[in-house]
Amino acid sequence: MTGAKKSDGPFLRGMGWLMGVDQLACEIVMIAMMLLITVEVVCRTFFNYSLQFSDEISSYLLVAVTFLGIGISLKEGSLFRVDFLYARFSARLKSLLEFFFNLLSLAFVLLVEYQILRFLMSSIKRGITAPTLLATPLYLPQLVMPVGLTFVILVLLVEIRRSFRALLDGGAKEEKAQ
User: Fold this and answer.
1) In 48-143, which ranges are continuous DSSP H helix?
2) C-beta separation of 58 from 33 below 8 A
3) Nearest to 72, CA basis, from 115, 24, 113
4) Tens of pLDDT, residues 23-54
5) How far is 148 from 114, CA to CA, in rounded Å?
6) How far apart are the C-alpha atoms of 123 and 99, rounded to whole Å?
7) Is residue 31 within a helix (H) or strand (E), and if so which, with residue range?
8) Which of 100-114, 122-136, 140-154, 163-177 has the weakest average pLDDT?
9) Mean pLDDT rounded to a whole number for the chain
10) Which of 11, 56, 84, 109 lies 20 to 30 angstroms, CA to CA, from 128?
């Protein structure tokens, strides 16, 4: 999925905007994690003091950046690809493989999203908290998981559309682009 142009439909323009928000969220989470760990190291090194909660919070932030980053990686084409083998295929075969791989990926991600939503609802219903000093309600860090997977689903829908169009065109557009 490339950057949305004015000629793209509202869905693709909206996707471009959403992926920008997703990337900004990843960047903010990474900066927050970096700052938290840096403050912890400085406190331990110079003041012989620990924040006590930095491990817990940085772990939650790691989960957030992982789930939010999957959609970005997929959009950029840096996920699920074995380029040295893939480059040898014809444009038509590439289009066919991409289409079926994207469909299979969508089915898998939808199943994982469903299970994570069940897990999240269970945490909310049961009021589960982390057995730590902060006693964080676990649904809070778990909320980012379905959000990140929703970005993956949206990217996969765009990729399915693109690969289906390329398949109908016989891979001709991809052949010209190379």
Assistant:
1) 54-75, 83-86, 91-126, 139-142
2) yes
3) 24
4) 999 999 999 999 999 999 999 999 999 999 99
5) 13
6) 36
7) helix 10-47
8) 163-177
9) 88
10) 109
Q: 46: burial class by Cβ within 10 Å (0-12, 13-18, 19+)?
A: exposed
Q: How far apart are CA 133 and CA 150, in angstroms?
A: 31
Here the tokens at position 95 are: 């289009």
Q: Amino acid identity of 2?
A: T
- 84 in a structural domain: yes
**Which residues are within 8 A (CB) of 118 and not within 5 positions of it... i.e. 6 or more apart?**
none
Residue 5 belongs to a domain: no
What is the token pair recorded at 160? 């399915």
Q: State which residues form the domain around 46.
A: 10-177
Total count of domains within the chain? 1
Nearest C-alpha neighbor of 165 from the set 157, 105, 15: 157
The answer to whether 173 and 166 have CB atoms below 8 angstroms apart is: yes
Residue 110 domain flag: yes
Amino acid type, 49: Y
Pull the structure tokens for residue 111. Answer: 């199943």
In a domain, 127, yes or no: yes
Q: For residue 131, is pLDDT > 70? A: yes
